[in-house]
Design a protein that fits this description.
The protein has 7 helices and 57 strands. By secondary structure, the protein is mainly beta. It is elongated. InterPro entries: Beta-barrel_TonB_sf, CarboxyPept-like_regulatory, Plug_dom, Plug_dom_sf, TonB-dep_rcpt-like. Keywords: Cell outer membrane, Membrane, Receptor, Signal, Transmembrane, Transmembrane beta strand, Transport.
Length: 921
Amino acid sequence: MKKLLLIALFFCFQISQSQEQEKQVSINFENALIPEVLEQLKQTTNLQFYYVEAWFENRRVSGKYQNAPVTKVLEEIFKDTYINYYFMDGGRVVLTRNNIIYDELPRGFFEEKQEAVAEREVEEEAYDPVFYTGNKTATTAPMETVYIGREDRATNRSRLSLSGYIYDRETGEPIPNLAVLVRGRNIGAVTSDSGFYSLQLPAGENILETRSLGSENLQMRVVIYNDGELNLQLSENFEALGEVFLESNLDKNVKNAYAGEETIDVREIRNIPLILGERDIMRVATTLPGISTAGEGAAGFNVRGGNADQNLILLDDAVMYNPAHFFGIFSAINPFTTGDVTIYKGSIPAQYGGRLSSVFDLRTKDANTEKFSGEVSIGPVTGNVALEVPIIKETSGLLVGVRSTYSDWILKSLDEETLSDRSASFYDGNIKYNHKFSDNTDLSVTGYYSRDSFSITADSLHRFSNRMATIRLNHKLSDRHRGSVILTNSDYAFDIDYDSDFSNNFTSGYNINETEAKLNMDFQLNPKHRFNYGISGKLYNVMPGEIAPLGENSIVRPLRLDTERGLEGAVYFEDSFNVTDKLLVNAGIRFSVFAALGAREQNIYEPGVPRRLSTKIERREYDDNEFMETYAGPEVRLSSRYLLTRDLSVKVSYNNTYQYIHSLSNNTTASPTDTYKLSDINIAPQRANQYSLGFYQNLDNNTYELSVEGFYKTSNNILDYKVGAEMFLNEAIETEVLQGEGRAYGAEFLLKKTIGKLNGWLGYTYSRSFIKLDSEFREERVNNGEYFPSNFDKPHDLSMVANYKITKRFSFSANFVYQTGRPVTVPVGKFVEGGSQYVMYSNRNEYRIPDYYRLDVSFNVEGDHRIKKFAHSFWNISVYNVLGRNNPYSVFFVTEAGEVKAYQSSIFAIPVPTITYNFRF
């Protein structure tokens, strides 16, 4: 009888509750506060609402309803809030924030153990109610608790999305490369350049932890009911400064799928002793396995056996054609304005294209929007100033960086007649404006300009410049979908003035300009799939060269080569697919197309015979924007990672790439006067295939990182030159170059210690790089058509970077470099023909110059680490080439008195001491 009575009462309660919910109401409100609307509902329906007014944060709503259910009205006014509601008997409505009030427990609630529930929630598809008691997790330290999302009965997902941005509390700048982990779960993320992170969490309680060597470590309890945002601010951890130069963000090196990816933390490279006290991002990069230069003073980089023109160097998405000052002695990248650097030398994401070997993705940091700040460096030959100026507090800021050398003043002050008329100077400037319109939309505008001027002989003056600009608009469409619209322009130019005592004085110049528009999208479909897709288009304009007489008495005839134009486009799609907890696959496809455009003339040659002016059969003319030749092809980007253990993974990758632009030079090292040529009717695009296999392991709780990776790369249509080729202002350059096959292989070893008083890394690379120039015609064959070492083939490359922290303020640093000498072609004999004496040379690149090695040391002194002080200072006392090694830059041969004599040139043959003072405010 009692049971029947209880059942009857329950049904009466349900009927009464249903009637209250279905009450019809007519109500109008315009831009009204939510409590005001609830008061109107109370007057109209006699319902009584219970809530905390602070929950609504002065939110205003508008609506017009005629005979609508009261539940529909409540759903509309609460749709953009975290508010739920529950109807009780007697016309009472209880509002709750985030969670739902349940009037029954889920099936099996009392039978299942808590541990079983925790494991089940990861796999089951149905959504269970979230019960949080406030003391579920045992912890001794006080911990802030935040509640995310609005619980929804209709949600049918086992994982919920949490995303947001992490900023520096003092400067307002985003914190990149910060690890965001979930305690007790195999879940984590690393913040992007803009400080963005995204996690897929099980519903309920999660303990979030952040880990970084440069910022405070934060612990926070997050109770998540639905998808939502959580933005964080962290303070800088001063005691950690200088501990690590290069880090892979905890276990990122083991967990991600990209083989051969390296990240440089620019803030942590200041202790590394480098030439003339300049912090040099690119020189730090060359201490990593697989990245080298052709020699000291070479302007380019060689990655995994590739030519210098096969590297895509991006500064805020704009292409930088020459990343060096003064023949590679200084980097053109300002370390004070650069946020971080990511290098892809194995697996290249599908969004990047146009180069065969690698991508250097450099990002300028955002300006401080909280307070005025800056950094200054004063060295023996250079000065550097970077200022961050808030424009609108917490909304926008301006970053300005200027760097210049005063070496011209030093040369003119020296009491040395041979140097008094020499010059060597450069300067560069960065400017970036960042504006945050809302939590979903932000804009950045970047500009860069650099200029070099040097005269190494009395009769010539060389000048070259880089100019770049970027506009980037980022927008978040939803918690799982975001995108960027990017517009860039890059310009590189050089000119030479030759002024001698003769009548052949001239001025000559070259210019390449490119403009690109790109749409890049990122979509987190679910915990297993993350898509990156987009489209890009690029327009090239190349002025291949011109010459004009310098002075009234010059007999040089003016000449200007036809402008080259080309259009390059691409669409791409990539899926990061978590097949299982152990297996992660990144599968991407990029389809690129290139069209050589008119207006221009092209030489057409007789088929079946060598290309030379005597075999030219016509000069074909093309109209403006007419397609002269089109090339296209798919580019597969495939990489995978398998976790053998929690701290050990194996990665396999395959890439095929296209490159539609070529550098033209018959120098053995890259120089600022190298020119670039677009593919056309006579010169085909370069293509490459690369395979890699690597093992990555972290030891002793991520204190040590160990990696071993092997690669094999083949390439086609690699551009090289004929014997005795004339490259300067040649209207038929295709008659002077050859296209052949390339082959490179090697193994890379890296051991890194990231924390502790002694830290740094040891890198070793064994690699070979060969090229084959074969043809049915003898004059187009080099070394009998067999493979021979490329100009940058250096089998052994060893680098060691170490820092010992004596105290929190004093440290000692050193780096050591050893490289096999690069190949060289040498004279091996003489012969007489027709009464004239000639020199006979060896096979191309048959010999090598002496091996290269160098030791640098430095002593570093930091100011005290008090937070509340105007400026934080830093002294660096270093000695470059402390052993005084006379390393050869090049070997050349001169005929004197009938004898062939060899000479060696060096850049720095003695120890070079430097004292640099830095302060940051």
